[in-house]
Fold this sequence. Notes:
A: mainly beta, globular, B: 12-stranded mixed sheet, 3-stranded antiparallel sheet, 16 strands, about 10% helix
Amino acid sequence: xxxxxxxxxxxxxxxxxxxxxxxxxxxxxxxxxxxxxxxxxxxxxxxxxxxxxxxxxxxxxxxxxxxxxxxxxxxxxxxxxxxxxxxxxxxxxxxxxxxxxxxxxxxxxxxxxxxxxxxxxxxxxxxxxxxxxxxxxxxxxxxxxxxxxxxxxxxxxxxxxxxxxxxxxxxxxxxxxxxxxxxxxxxxxxxxxxxxxxxxxxxxxxxxxxxxxxxxxxxxxxxxxxxxxxxxxxxxxxxxxxxxxxxxxxxxxxxxxxxxxxxxxxxxxxxxxxxxxxxxxxxxxxxxxxxxxxxxxxxxxxxxxxxxxxxxxxxxxxxxxxxxxxxxxxxxxxxxxxxxxxxxxxxxxxxxxxxxxxxxxxxxxxxxxxxxxxxxxxxxxxxxxxxxxxxxxxxxxxxxxxxxxxxxxxxxxxxxxxxxxxxxxxxxxxxxxxxxxxxxxxxxxxxxxxxxxxxxxxxxxxxxxxxxxxxxxxxxxxxxxxxxxxxxxxxxxxxxxxxxxxxxxxxxxxxxxxxxxxxxxxxxxxxxxxxxxxxxxxxxxxxxxxxxxxxxxxxxxxxxxxxxxxxxxxxxxxxxxxxxxxxxxxxxxxxxxxxxxxxxxxxxxxxxxxxxxxxxxxxxxxxxxxxxxxxxxxxxxxxxxxxxxxxxxxxxxxxxxxxxxxxxxxxxxxxxxxxxxxxxxxxxxxxxxxxxxxxxxxxxxxxxxxxxxxxxxxxxxxxxxxxxxxxxxxxxxxxxxxxxxxxxxxxxxxxxxxxxxxxxxxxxxxxxxxxxxxxxxxxxxxxxxxxxxxx
Amino acid sequence: xxxxxxxxxxxxxxxxxxxxxxxxxxxxxxxxxxxxxxxxxxxxxxxxxxxxxxxxxxxxxxxxxxxxxxxxxxxxxxxxxxxxxxxxxxxxxxxxxxxxxxxxxxxxxxxxxxxxxxxxxxxxxxxxxxxxxxxxxxxxxxxxxxxxxxxxxxxxxxxxxxxxxxxxxxxxxxxxxxxxxxxxxxxxxxxxxxxxxxxxxxxxxxxxxxxxxxxxxxxxxxxxxxxxxxxxxxxxxxxxxxxxxxxxxxxxxxxxxxxxxxxxxxxxxxxxxxxxxxxxx
Lengths: 791, 281
């Protein structure tokens, strides 16, 4: 792979000698010095550029005099006249538009531009949009918000996971400042791990994934943290009934270096002793997290960033059971300008996710289970701004994975007698990705982006097991046939995959565009789950001799149209083919199983759907409607009698409505409604009496033969801003919200069992010995109040 | 305000409510259910037959009384079983299974034939059933009366056991054991029974089969040596039975059994050893 890159580099150097000049620089927010990514730079007479994720832009033009306009959503435009007779650096600071009621004027031109800039199958939330997200529980939750958008389905309550276009939850790559976040949920999904105050920008790729990204099959969620205010010290925070948060930020060296530190803590547990029930008093349930970031501008050409995240959740049910889990990430980045056309970022990244479970049945039956996944990687991403119509991206990354599949240990001496300490063999692996990607603007009507990614994966060291396995019938493993032990640093089982990526956009008119995309993706690290919702305990594991990499091919087409009235609309259709999809065999044994591979079966998957979106983004009344029709299927020999079956997370209809109304400068209200078809479920088809009790009889020819009742819910929120006084820095507001306004009892789980004497306490009318269906509901109506401040 | 906060918090965390719901789920045609265990000990052979029913049907299980049932010792005699009552078919005489021989069950019912076969496993006898009182000790092992089994493990093959423990004729526990963890086996084969206090001082406790027994309790232990298939069937049946929506639940499915033609239940041939102990001071 080194060869082609070298050739490309040479080629670019030669191109650099052409007789033209370059305007380059960074675009920042005038109020706090944050770099603005995705800001548009327009050159009068055609042409332009968009700032990259570090706010950098570069435009190459013939010598001459130009009027250049800098634009960013929610900010006032700046116009500059540039006499171009040499390479120029222009760092621009844009100011926020005054947020006054009744003054929102929508220029037709701005709308036209937006349809052109919108990429197919990509969802983008910029700073300005994040601030406008409906607030629930006093906080902005970006992950919850994206599940309202077409093609991204919430995995349900008690879960901040999501499914993108027929992909399972582990097929989403969630990046926070380039570091993988393996588990994005707090409080079992009540909150996501992303603190809205610390986030600058988020992009979700549902399809048309650029070659730069890889490692997951279905989607990329790229989240960037804010850099911190480089102009002045500031604090943002909120005190609420569920959690509180505080962000401090400020310059270290004015305009050169800044920091941000943001923390959150939920404190529901502090009030548990007030509960009447003793088992609740002894329970624990809380989370905390911390985001840190600092940057330093060494020179015009070099800038260093350090960022990190640390979060932890603790859940304990009386003395009996406790689980804690959390992510930790750290990113060190170096932005470097090789010249005014060549931008490079090199990063060193650390990411860790681990959990521990403690079970105390008795004094001599107290034990724990610990699992972890831990990555270190180095990556380098290069961009060459060849001309104003052509941009070349290339680079690579190396990831060193370490997996601890489980340490089972007694918590005390009494238990050590009964439970032997067992460490399931730790695993290591090396993953790499190399890419080249070209963005090309053929004309004002036609744009291309195409690229190629090469990914590789190798296991390192350890023991490899071979099983007798009938590949045709896909029967679960029976006997271990061979064991090979590799040296600690020995690479083996190398897989490689070529991943072509392409997208095309054709502007039919100034306000209407037709777009298409294709991408192939490979996935080498995955998670198996037996439920449609994810738990922190679901194990991450890599491919090996027995489990092959997953592969997907996706095509998507979309029509985008903006109307003069300010309405933005889009419709997209997609089809996705998936190979080597995994699911558990019938009767799989999941708890602490050394040979988990043996419980998994692999087969085909396919998904297709249509997505519709209508939004009104400007004005006092704004909001959107999103509807998705989707179907997700699996066919795996050995499951469901070899018949195709609907995936556990298939939801046929998905509808979201979000409406925001500004009543005055101080009063804002949001309302939202979501509807989703019920989750598939395997129900009994009968029962039989055996071994002195009722046993359940399933239809082994049809997995997921039933659907839970539909999920629907409405939420409202009202924000009342405090009076702003010209001499006071403090700004504040009160947020009142109600989750599940009409108290819908949405099913979280449905299960079937024989009723016993203990059930009489809860259900006095229960007939002991009869069989019944029981439904649990997680969240009924929940009011919350938060006071937010900023100074 | 404090009360309001407490109320809100409690509402959030513990509104997780459970209720019995009335839903309609798919149902399949009734299937034949076979329940039978025959032993190495001379006894009347019994087979119980019933019929599966819709999940929400609240009637008791329907007995099957019109089947014809026989058991054949492979390469040996055929024994016919006659209907007595409550779905039970019994042999006229007592029979004894022999280690290493295979027994085949044949049930003809409503024009269908259901077959199952199993081989009788060998098992070493239980050496001892012991109890001892553990006084307060510097190892902080819980004080009390322990009952444990000791026997040797047959190292020539993989062994699968079901232990049933009765205290004063009441079934207290039913434990599956496949001596997978070696010394952690219920058979405690590595534990020196002649030096209990010495072993405890070395931080070793036998894996008890019962704890907290009192003087003059009668303890019975039945050791069933079973086939790997039956072991797996019982294991899966119990895992399916205790589903609670937790992440370690197996996918919902019927356990694999040894009955042909989609019959439910299991026909098992088991090696039974019994030991009794009356707890003394």
